Amino acid sequence: MTTTNPSSGDTGDTGETGKKGDPGGARPLRADAQRNRERILAAAEAVFAEKGPSASTEEVAARAGVAIGTVFKHFPTKQALLQAIMKGLLGRLDGEMAELAADEAPGEALFTFVTRMVEQAARKRTVVGLLAETGVDLQVASSVRMLRDGIGTLLARSQEAGTVRDDVRLDEVIALLTGICQGALHAGWDDDLRQRTLAIVFAGLRAPEARR
Amino acid sequence: MTTTNPSSGDTGDTGETGKKGDPGGARPLRADAQRNRERILAAAEAVFAEKGPSASTEEVAARAGVAIGTVFKHFPTKQALLQAIMKGLLGRLDGEMAELAADEAPGEALFTFVTRMVEQAARKRTVVGLLAETGVDLQVASSVRMLRDGIGTLLARSQEAGTVRDDVRLDEVIALLTGICQGALHAGWDDDLRQRTLAIVFAGLRAPEARR
DNA sequence: CACTAAGATGAGTGGAAACTCATCTTTATA
DNA sequence: TATAAAGATGAGTTTCCACTCATCTTAGTG
C-alpha cells in the first residue's frame, strides 16, 4: 500500500505502444531514468513535507542525489512536480477511502477517514499547502473531485446509518476538513490536541440520538 | 471602531518626550511623515488582505502613492510592516473582545466572538497568512498572547454559564478557530457556508443540557 | 565490443523581489 | 525668508530561484 505506483507518469501514457508511427507517444522509459524519477518523487515529497511548497527545486535535487537538470527533465515545471506528488497522495487517500467504505461500519467510516486524513496532513505540508497557496485550478482538479465524491459517499452512508445529522451538507464537511488539516501543521499540534479537536467536531456532526 | 489608531507605531513610544537628553528616544515625527505612515499601513492592509503576505512591497508602495524607499524608511523590513499590521488588527480584535465580555450574555459571548473573528478572516488574508506562513515567534507574540488570554476568559465564562462543555480546553478552541479562519479564505466560502460550518463547531462545543 | 540515442550534468540565464543610498524636496523654526 | 535637518525619491545592488542547454555518460541492442 505504501509503494508508489511505478506506471504513473505525467505524460498520461496508458499501456505500451508496440506500434510505431505514433508521433508524440510514450516511450518505454529507460531503467535508470525510471529509478531517478522515483527517487525524485520520494525526495520531493520529503522536502515539501518538511518545508512546504516554497522549498527550492535544488534542494529536492540534492536530496534525490541527482542534478537539477534531471529534475526538470522529468518534471518540466515545479508545478508539474507538485502536481505529481498531489496526484500520488490523493490517489493513496482515495484507495484508503474505498477500503474504508467496504470494511468499516457505515456509520463510523466518515469519522475514521477524516481522522486519518488529518493525521496525514500533520506530516505532509504538501497537500495542505498546495490546496491553500497554489491555485487549485490545476489539472489535479479531477483527483480532488474524486476525493470529494468519495467523502460525499461516506457522509451519505453515515447519515443513512443515523450517526450524522441529516442537515449536514458535504460542503461543511469539506470546509471543516480542510480547515483542520491546515491547523494540524501548526506548531504545538500534538496527537492529544488533534484528537480533542476532532472530538469536538465529531460531536457537532453526530445526530442527537447517536451521541454518547 | 473602524478608524485606525493614529498613535500606534512600532517604535513603542507612549506619549510625547518633552525632555531632551533622551538618546535613541522617539522623535515627534513630522506632519507629512505621519500622514505617509498611515497611508502605507492602510495600503499594506488592503494589498495583503487581497493577495496574502507574499504580495510585493512595491505594490504596497504604489497603492500608498509613495516611493518604495519611503516604505522601507518607516518599516525597515517587510516583516516589520507585517508585524505592524498584525498588531493593529489584533489590537482591534482585542478591543472588540473586551466590549463583548462586558455587554453580551456570558454564555454566548464566546460564540459571538468566534463568529466575528472568522468573518474578519474571510476578508483579511493577513492575519491568517501570517499566523500560518511566517514564524509566529515574532514580537507580535505578546499581542497574540493577549488575544489568547481573552479567549480563555470568554471560554471560562461560557463554561460557568453552562453553555459550553466543561472538558473543552482553550487549546482546542484556538485550534478550531485558526483552522476555520484558514479555511474561510478559500474560494467558495460564502456567508452561508461559514454560518453552517460554525454551527457544527458550536454544536460540538455546547454542553448537552444547553443544546437547542 | 561498438555504437547510438536516451539520459544526466551543472554552469549559466532571466527575472522577481527585498533592501540601500546618494541626491533632491519639504517641513518647521529662527 | 533663510536654513538645517527630516523626509522622500527611485535607480541600483544583492540574493534567490525557476528554468535552459551544450556537453558528457550510460543503458540497451546487434
What report would you give on this structure?
2 copies of one chain form a homodimer. Helices cover 64% and strands 0% of the residues of chain A. Chain A is mainly alpha-helical and 212 residues long. In chain A, helix 4 packs antiparallel against helix 5. Chains A and B meet through helix 8 and helix 9 of A and helix 8 and helix 9 of B. The first copy, chain A, binds a DNA duplex (30 and 30 nucleotides) through helix 1 and helix 3. Chains A, B: Pfam families: TetR_C_43, TetR_N.
Question: How is this fold's topology laid out?
Answer:
Two copies of one chain form a homodimer.
Chain A lengths: L30 H21 L5 H8 L3 H7 L3 H26 L5 H15 L1 H8 L8 H21 L8 H15 L6 H15 L7
Helix pairs in contact in A: 1-2, 4-5, 4-7, 5-8, 5-9
The first copy, chain A, binds a DNA duplex (30 and 30 nucleotides) through α1 and α3.
Features:
about 0% strand, about 210 residues, transcription regulation (chains A, B), DNA-binding, mainly alpha, Tetracycline Repressor, domain 2, 9 helices, homodimer, elongated, DNA-binding (chains A, B), Tet_transcr_reg_TetR-rel_C_sf (chains A, B), DNA-bd_HTH_TetR-type_CS (chains A, B), 2 domains, Arc Repressor Mutant, subunit A, disordered N terminus
Outline:
The structure is a homodimer of 212-residue chains. With 212 residues, chain A is mostly helical. Chain A has 9 helices and no strands.
* CATH-scheme architecture of the largest domain in chain A: Orthogonal Bundle
Overall, the morphology of chain A is elongated
Radius of gyration of chain A: 20 Å
CATH class of the largest domain in chain A equals: Mainly Alpha
User: What count of helical segments of chain A does DSSP give?
Assistant: 9
Query: How many angstroms separate the termini of chain A?
Result: 34 Å
Q: Structural class, from secondary structure content of chain A? A: mainly alpha
pLDDT below 50 for ≥5 consecutive residues: which ranges of chain A?
A: 1-24, 132-138
Q: In the CATH hierarchy, what is the superfamily of the largest domain in chain A? A: Tetracycline Repressor, domain 2
Biggest interface between chains: A-B, 33 and 33 residues
Q: What percent of residues of chain A adopt helix (DSSP H or I)?
A: 55-70%
The count of strands of chain A amounts to 0
Structural domains of chain A: how many = 2
Q: Mind describing the biggest β-sheet of chain A? A: none
Oligomer classification: homodimer
